[in-house]
Amino acid sequence: MANSPTGDSATDRLVRILDTFTPTRTVQTATEIGRRSGLPSSTAHRIVTELVEAGLLERDEDRRVRIGMRLWELATRSSHALRLRQAAMPFMERVQSRVREHTQLAILEQDEALFLERLSSPDSGANITRVAGRLPLHASSSGLVLLAFGDVDLQERVLSSPLAPLTRATLSDPAAVRRKLAEVRAIGHAIAPGYIEEVSTGIAVPVRDETSRVVAALSVVLPRDAETDFAVVELHRAAQDIARSLGFRH
Ligand code: PHB
């Protein structure tokens, strides 16, 4: 695509505009988008207008801008995330109805855990995961599963970058994370008591596809001191059923 005087392509500029939207910043003025994207204001305004015309962004009555339904539609159609979510849903519902706590499905995306789905009931406790939100790999049960069963390059990249301590319990020392990953591989699941927020314990198991490759993590979030055994059993059973529904035969 055509390059601007500053050398970035039309695609770069588009991505910079879309990247100003985050899980907690879903509505912005065109001026805010311009400032946050780092693009010249007139360029940002023009691209926002074009994206609104194409339906990829939408404006509300106050002319504030959000991600458009057309973009949601195109993205949700996407290939493997949708297939995985559809295969997982019935078994996530079973986990949620039996464990009666938050149940979520995450995949590895750009060195973070990206959440595809979350089921909760009104009386479930604290939980910071959001659908289409991300958590750090070293500090969440899902992340630890994805890291433990991920490739060595991923592990080395994550372990050699700063491991932010989010609570007093977060493992922020690379050696401690390495030991935890070995434990996760040995016992087949991750338990993360208070790693990301003091009041909760995350428990996650790997989800394998038809080739036996780990493609996701299935997790529940319990109150910090809750009994974990029942949830672990239910999660393993669900992960096996999901793999079977994706075509895994054994
Ligand atoms: C976890 O997966 O470890 C986790 C996720 C969200 C929370 C707490 C724990 O709120």
Structure description:
The structure is a single chain. The chain is an alpha+beta fold and 250 residues long. The chain has two domains: 66 residues, Orthogonal Bundle (Arc Repressor Mutant, subunit A), CATH 1.10.10; 166 residues, Beta-Lactamase (2-Layer Sandwich), CATH 3.30.450. It has nine helices and eight strands. The chain has a six-stranded antiparallel beta sheet, sandwiched between helices. Strands 1-2 form a two-stranded antiparallel ribbon. A hairpin with a 5-residue loop joins strand 7 and strand 8. The radius of gyration is 20 Å and the shape is globular. GO terms for molecular function: DNA binding; DNA-binding transcription factor activity. Keywords: DNA-binding, Transcription, Transcription regulation. It holds the Pfam family IclR_C. InterPro entries: GAF-like_dom_sf, HTH_MetabolicPath_Reg, Tscrpt_reg_IclR_C, Tscrpt_reg_IclR_N, WH-like_DNA-bd_sf, WH_DNA-bd_sf.
